[in-house]
Each structure stands twice: as structure tokens, then as C-alpha cells.
Amino acid sequence: MLEVIDKGSATESHPVPLLFVHGAWHAAWCWDEHFLEFFADKGFRAVAVSVRGHGASALSKPLNSCSVPDYVDDVRATADMLGSDEPVLIGHSMGCLVVHKYLETYPAPAAVLMAPSTSRGARRTAIHMFRRHPWIFLRSSTFGNSANLVNTPALCREFLFYADTPEPIVKSCAARMRPESTRAGMAQMFGRLNVGLVASPVLVLGAKDDGSRTDADVTAVARTYQTDAEFFPDMGHVMMLEPGWQAVAERIDSWLGGQGL
User: Fold this and answer.
1) I want to staple 68 with a disulfide (CB 3.0 to 4.6 A). Which of 56, 170, 187, 227 is the partner?
2) DSSP secondary-structure letter at 116?
3) Domains along the sequence of the chain with CATH
């Protein structure tokens, strides 16, 4: 069983549902803090799924053997649950990779990528984490809990939040970090994208103070989709939880309106 948080309902103005896909260490809860209610209030059906082994979603095999295609299957199962209209896909971080691989196989009216990365950029991030915290990195990536890279307030702030984000927000997020699949994590660093198979319009958004992504990496992702990246100042990696989250949500809403959605 997959955990699905479902808010709002389709309206005449917005008949197409929105399906939100979380990144590594997170689950559907990260969208439920602000985004689902925001878009439900705008007249959308807003749905977030926790992929297998995340949140309250079950596992049928060890987490570390779960792959990005497995996560794509979970997103597809959720899309099928929504009814006849294919949903708009909105992904964050590793969820952007899941969304892309979904779009290589399945249609979608549009997609939004928040804080995405190229495989080269993901490798740079891993090297950066190793140089900053070599023992924690080695322990978490071998015999330890992969969430140890981000599950203390100090580490969570360093990699996921802006320096001035209020401490209670950072502490709440750090406390909810859970292990990620090693196999899925490796796919971020070495997986290949077939952009030629993607026909959907794509909006690419980045955070100017992202401790896990560089502006150049987000821009490189946007370039592959023949579009421009848009950046939000004074904001870290977890864009849907930062104090400036509403500006991000409003930009997505306006862009969807421009797509007739």
C-alpha cells in the first residue's frame, strides 16, 4: 500500500490533478506542510505520494534494492488512481529524476522540476558532502543510515536550508529524515536521461542558496529541456518548506495557468 495524501478536487478552471513527488529522505508530508493546501485552495486536486519505503508506504523488498523504476511504478499507480486525466507531475530533488523517467514512458500535460540535478551535479554534491563530513559520509553510505547526512539540525541546515531559516523549521525537517535507497541514490549520480522521449512542457526552478545544488547544475537541467531556469533568492534546497515557499507555489500556479491548466 502506498501512502497518498489527497486534497481538494478538480474544478472547471483546473480539471487536471497535480501529483507531487518527493525527493530523497523525505515523504509526502513535505508537500502537505504548505503546497497541497495552497493548490487545493486554488481549485486543484493536489495529491502527494510517498514512494515505497518512505512515509507510511510499505516495502516488499529491502529498501536499498529499490530502484528509480520502482518509484516510477509507484507514481504511475497513484496516477492511475486519480481517474481518466493524466496529472501534472511536480518533483523535488531526486523526485525530479523520478518525474523525468516517468515522462520517458508516460504522457503528462506538464511537469515542474524543483531543485533538479544532472548526474554530474549529483556526483559533485556527493564529493562535497564527503569533503565536508568524511566520516559521516562513509558511515551513512556503507553500513549506516543514509539519512545521517541530514538528520541533525546542523547538517540539515547546511545542505537543505537557507542560513537564516528559523531553527524550528530546520529541526522539524531534520527529525523527519528517513533512509534512502542506495540503489536509487546511485541512479542520481550515474543514470542517463533521454530527453528526446519527453514531450511535456517543463518548468525548472532553483534556489539561490541551495547547499545541495549549484546554479549551474540547475541551469544545465533547464537547458536540456530547452528552457530557462528560474531562481528564488534567500532560499535553500527544500523549497516547499522554506519561509518563501509561497513565492514558489505562486510561480507554479501562474505557469500552469499559462499552459491552460
Assistant:
1) 187
2) -
3) 3-118+193-258 (3.40.50.1820)
